[in-house]
Amino acid sequence: MNLVNSISPRAYWAALFALAASVHAAYDPPVGYYSTATGLSGAALKAALHNRIKGHTVLPYTSGSTDVWDALTVLDADPNNSANVLLLYSGESRSSTLREGSASGNTWNREHVWALSHGPGSTGTVPGTDVFHLFACDTTVNANRGNQPYDEVSFSPDPEASSSGSNGSSWNPRDADKGVIARALLYMAVRYESDDSVDLELAETAGSTTMGKLSTLLAWHRKFPPTEAERKRNDTIYTTFQRNRNPFIDNPLFGDQVFSGDTPAGAWKRARFTTAQLANAAVSGDAVDPDGDGRPNRLEYLLNTNPLLAESSGEAATTVEYLPPTVAGGVARLALSHRRLRYATDLVVTYEVSADCVTWTAFNPTATTTAYVDGLMDRVTVETPFTGERRFLRVRLDRP
Question: Total structural domains in the chain?
């Protein structure tokens, strides 16, 4: 079944290009970095991502020309005070010179969110030095967390990090760290496979080579998506230190595509609907409009908007812009612009033209421009020649 979205006329050509000029694709992976992962899910996707990110540049844990201490001083630097680092579990800003072993008193050290005793073994191994799961942390808080797995539990507040704490068997970090920790652990479970010194896996129960709790980590990954600071940290690891990336920061849909076996659309739905709603096609079906705002779920997916929140409740009303005729290089043209979730790889977008809004014909754009909007969204503008006759353009969405 096709979904046709009506076009909202807006004279917005100049403003569109002002927007395109003002944004940039900071911290995005290089074009084609994940090309071998296209169309895959489950074990096949996990293998493709592993092969993409393995073999990274390994940093010495300490006493190197550039070691893990040096990396964390850069990666966890306080953006408001570059002489300080921000500590995991508390968010405290502390002088980077107060690191354990080179200072006394209120020191910080290197927290392994994938505890060494659950697989990496020691700081002399490759996973033991991987900065994707290493963070600056108060020395005492690090010891208090120990090797506990993560879970959403009622906890006794830690004396040095009151928003985090333990129930005696699991550690519950503050909300600001939950998504960060989840994606660090998702990365570790993909980076270290059977062709490495240890095969790390996520599970519901932690063990000798497992960490958890997987269901909780996936829930945190969905609820607390990557921030600009996390995306910057990921990109800095790639450009400056290890030369590899965390796929789950670059493409959040990979989380459920790998660990739940979803398609991209399925991963998006899992983050938007409850389990009961997912099982009810009358709520989560592609062509259904559960919030009654005129956007079926397939369109909400394209736009990455909330399928359970009507646009009149706060979401942007304009989804597609019809741009008035312009002339470039002596050629008149019509253009249409729309936002697109860049990870909606299983959604087929077809552009159509009509003279009467009754008979529609697909057209191949003579030019397509993609402008970065944010970490998830692009704005796509397509053009077609304008002959001076009345013409209408529209977007049709299909799922293969």
Answer: 2
The rounded distance, in Å, linking the Cα atoms of 205 and 192 is 18
Phi, psi of 300, rounded to the nearest 5 degrees = -60, -40
Query: Is residue 69 domain-shared with residue 217, that is, in the same domain?
Result: yes
Q: 136 is in which domain, residue-wise?
A: 42-258
pLDDT digits (tens, 9 = 90+) for 260-313: 999 999 999 999 999 999 999 999 999 999 999 888 999 999 989 999 998 765
Domain membership flag for residue 277: no
150 near 181, Cβ under 8 Å? yes
The conformational region for residue 119 under phi > 0 = left, psi -120 to 50 = alpha, else beta, is left
**How many residues would you count in the chain?**
400
Shared-domain flag, residues 9 and 81: no
133 vs 330 pLDDT, higher one:
133
For the whole model, what pTM was predicted?
0.88
Q: pLDDT digits over 321-356, tens only?
A: 666 666 666 778 888 998 999 999 999 999 999 989
293 falls within a domain? no
Going by their DSSP bridges, the two strands 3-5 and 210-211 should be labelled as: unpaired
Place of tokens 């692009």: 378
The one-letter code for the residue type at 291 is D
Q: Could you give the 3-state DSSP secondary structure of residue 331?
A: strand
Question: Is 287 strand, coil or helix?
Answer: coil
Rounded CA gap, 279 and 1, in Å?
20
